[in-house]
Specification:
The structure holds 2 protein chains of 2 kinds. By secondary structure, chain A is mostly beta strands. Chain A is 0% helix and 61% strand. The chains are: A mainly beta, B mainly beta.
Chain lengths: 111, 115
């Protein structure tokens, strides 16, 4: 089976830094994805980690520790448009691409 | 521009009706997925297909079936719609394999209401 946990809601201030955590327990782990979803829209891909460490992509970074079953998404220099739901998803190593999602973290950025 | 297209954005059906949700992708992806998204529960996998005519149950397949007769099209079928199937349905596809390009691309979603 699998279990993916994220905080339900977070609030942060424009210009600040926020870290969204994701813990997982799954058999056959083969990579972790972060997606962003604005209200009423489809999720869009943000980042991917399969090896331990930090992946940086502009204002967004994602970290993975496989031994701890833990990842985080770091958002810097927050902007109002970053208000969205952030979804953590784990890929399992059967059939190559099956993705299982956490419940998502609703981030509100305040002025 | 890659595209996953779902046939309807909004749908209202009556209890007991047979409902078809269609999804088409133009990226020649091997894998296609159907998820439902509900507040507080996130995206839950209903069914997954990794090849034409191949399917695998996800976490919540009860009350649903799927069809993948062609590589580009993946249909979700509600045999007899019930009110607890009122939800947002999201279709996605990815290339399969184990590299970065296995990111999933999503359709815009179908908000289904069963009355």
């Amino acid at each position: 089976g699998q279990n993916i946990d994220q905080p339900t809601e977070m609030t942060a201030t424009e210009g600040a830094i926020v870290q969204i955590n994701c813990t997982y327990q799954t058999s056959g782990f083969n990579g972790l994805f972060w997606y962003q979803q604005h209200a009423g829209e489809a999720p869009t891909f943000l980042s991917y980690n399969v090896l331990d460490g930090l992946e940086e992509k502009g204002r967004f970074s994602s970290f993975l520790s496989r031994s701890k079953g833990y990842s985080y998404l770091l958002l810097k220099e927050l902007q109002m448009k970053d208000s969205a739901s952030y979804l953590c998803a784990v890929r399992r190593n059967n059939q190559g691409g099956k993705l299982i999602f956490g419940q998502g973290t609703e981030l509100s950025v305040k002025p | 521009d890659v595209k996953v297209t779902q046939s309807s954005r909004y749908l209202v059906k009556r209890t007991g009706e047979k409902v078809f949700l269609e999804c088409v992708q133009d990226m020649d992806h091997e894998n296609m997925f159907w998820y439902r998204q509900d507040p507080g529960l996130g995206l839950r996998l209903i069914y997954f297909s990794y090849d034409v005519k191949m399917k695998e149950k996800g976490d919540i397949p009860e009350g649903y079936s799927v069809s993948r007769e062609k590589k580009e099209r993946f249909s979700l079928i509600l045999e007899s719609a019930s009110t607890n199937q009122t939800s947002m349905y999201l279709c996605a596809s990815n290339q399969g394999g184990q590299g970065l390009n296995t990111e999933a691309f999503f359709g815009q979603g179908t908000r289904l209401t069963v009355v």
